[in-house]
Amino acid sequence: FRLEGFDGQPPALRSMDPLLDLGVTGNQKMAKKALRVMLQRMTGSEMLLHFLDVHQEPLVSDQELQEKMTPMEVSEVVLHEVVCKMAQLAIACRRCPVPQKWIGSSVGLAFDAGRLPSRLEGESEVRKFTQVNIFDWGRSELNTFDKHMMLSDKEQHDRAEFWGYYVGGIDRLSWEAARTYRHRFGCTGSWSHLNFKICDFDSMTDNDFMGRLTVPIEETTETCADIMTQSGRLVGENAARGRATLTYSIRWRSYPQGSRFKGAWLIKVVSAQNLPRQDKMQFRTTSDPIIEIIAVSEDAAGLLCHRQLSSVKVKCLDPDWEETFELPVLAEPGALEAALESAAVDLGARCAGSIFPPEKMPDWQKEGLFPELSSTKAASKWSWSSAEASDVEKAFKTWESCLDAISASPSTARPQRVDAHQPLGKSLTKPEAHIRPGAREQQTGLHPKHEKPDSPEANAYTTWALFEGQAAKPAVQMSTLSPDGIFIFEEQEGEQNLCGCLQFPCMS
User: Of 4, 40, 356, 434, which sees the most CB atoms within 10 A?
Assistant: First the structure.
């Protein structure tokens, strides 16, 4: 999947002008095209970083904290729900009886951030407005078993190839969501170190390094500290403008009882001074600074790396940010496992934290060393590099193997809603026997049917089905679950006719 669009962008992403590299501003037509290229270059982890970015929302005061949820609490519940639904989607695709060919299908993630819910409403209000949706099915058709067997060998191979690409994309997105959750919200102990990396923002190429600062995560009043080069020298120590510095503060805030968080470290980035100029290729004597903030913790499953980004300050060597970032600490362990377990029985138990490695790895950790902290007297040996591609792919393959094993076992399926008129325990193993002979399918694609549960025991699901020979409408009388998938029927004159054979988790 590529990131093709982003509605409701957070302020930090909006500040990343894609035309800065060209030195051109104000051209809306060119900016739109350049933005699309910039978004398409983003990795899955970068996309989710911006999707969950709430650090520039108004900071909830300590008094308000008792009454309503904070933006960080909202984003945690949102990602928890996304992880569950993406895992359900990956499993549902595997249980489809025959390969599909959904032309141009895209996945949409969304949540409502218009207001902060009260603690009385709780997380249920957030989950209700968190959506994982699939679009662009209008040119597609549901491939049934009978239709698939009537295709030529070449056409069957073509369907299988495209279906493999699609399922692989769903797998990757679900894995990225789970990995992001582990590293953003998996800490239940303490965060140990914080790395500030100041760069000159470039939309089409890698950002240019300007300086870094490594500090322990502990109560720190507003402090002005020197920043270092990659080799450990002071930035600007021989410059006429003086040494480059970063001003920041750190404080701990406890959360009220009943919150999913024990508390959070509030990292305030105030300003920087005397930064070096990097836009020399554009013949400018300035820079467009941005700060990457990576917090580090370690648990039994390995290293946790929480990464966030500040906004871009355009053409500025003495930027004022005044932005506050949160490093949350969960009250109870096992939240990621609970999200996966709610998608399918035993999925949480199979997926250990080690299959979700960090996107970046500190070199000191690779070498078994302990980092020296930045100061004016001792240079920092803290440097970062991307995680080994082989380690990432190995972890991803393990995730796919877990999904394969779960999908192959019908006993792992979560209970589905069955109509009251459907006999309990009825299971179909040959869906082709229920397809109406000669029925002409209407080329309207797959259409959603939203149902709400009638009782607390009934799970709400969104069914995507192809309705035959009539305009699409929510007219399904009954459904049943078999090892091959979910089969949706309508009953006419005592005969059961198959309308569709796929079910996805509820998108509320």
Answer: 356
Q: Is 484 within 8 Å of 97 (Cβ atoms)?
A: yes
- Tell me whether residue 85 is in a domain: yes
Q: Are residues 274 and 139 in the same domain?
A: no
In order along its 508 residues, the chain shows pLDDT tens digits of 788 888 889 999 999 988 877 766 667 788 888 888 888 888 889 999 999 999 988 889 999 999 999 999 999 999 999 999 999 999 999 988 889 876 667 889 999 878 899 998 888 989 999 999 887 665 567 788 888 999 999 999 988 998 999 999 999 999 999 999 999 999 999 999 999 999 999 887 888 899 999 999 999 999 999 999 888 889 987 777 889 999 999 999 999 999 999 999 999 999 999 999 876 555 567 889 999 999 999 877 788 999 999 999 999 999 999 999 999 999 999 999 999 999 999 999 888 778 998 887 665 444 444 455 544 433 344 455 666 788 889 999 999 999 999 998 765 555 433 333 333 233 323 333 232 233 323 322 333 333 333 333 333 222 232 222 233 333 333 444 444 444 455 555 555 565 555 443 333 3
373 and 500 part of one domain: no
Q: Nearest CA to 38 among 62, 63, 13? A: 13
Q: Which residue has the tokens 């996107």?
A: 359
3-state secondary structure 397-443: HHHHHHHHHHHHCHHHCCCCCCCCCCCCCCCCCCHHHHCCCCCCCCC
H-only helix segments in 41-96: 44-51, 71-94
Q: Say whether both 38 and 99 belong to one domain.
A: yes
The 8-class DSSP code of residue 301 comes to: T
| Assigned token pair, 349 | 């138990």
* Alpha-carbon gap, residue 220 to 214, rounded angstroms: 13
Q: Which of 164, 185, 206 is the last residue of a domain?
A: 185
Cα angle: 31, vertex 36, 40; to 5 degrees: 145
Q: Take residue 463 and report the two structure tokens written for it.
A: 């069914």
Both 110 and 93 in one domain: the answer is: yes
Task: Identify the helix (H) or strand (E) that includes residue 170.
Answer: helix 153-185
* DSSP letter (8 states) at residue 494: T
- Alpha carbon distances (Å) from 63 to 27, 116, 255: 45, 15, 11
C-alpha torsion sign, points 329, 330, 333, 337: negative
Q: How far apart are CA 316 and CA 289, in angstroms?
A: 7
Which domain range does residue 80 map to?
A: 11-185
Six-digit token string for 90: 């990956």
Query: Closest by alpha carbon to 179, among 407, 354, 391?
Result: 354
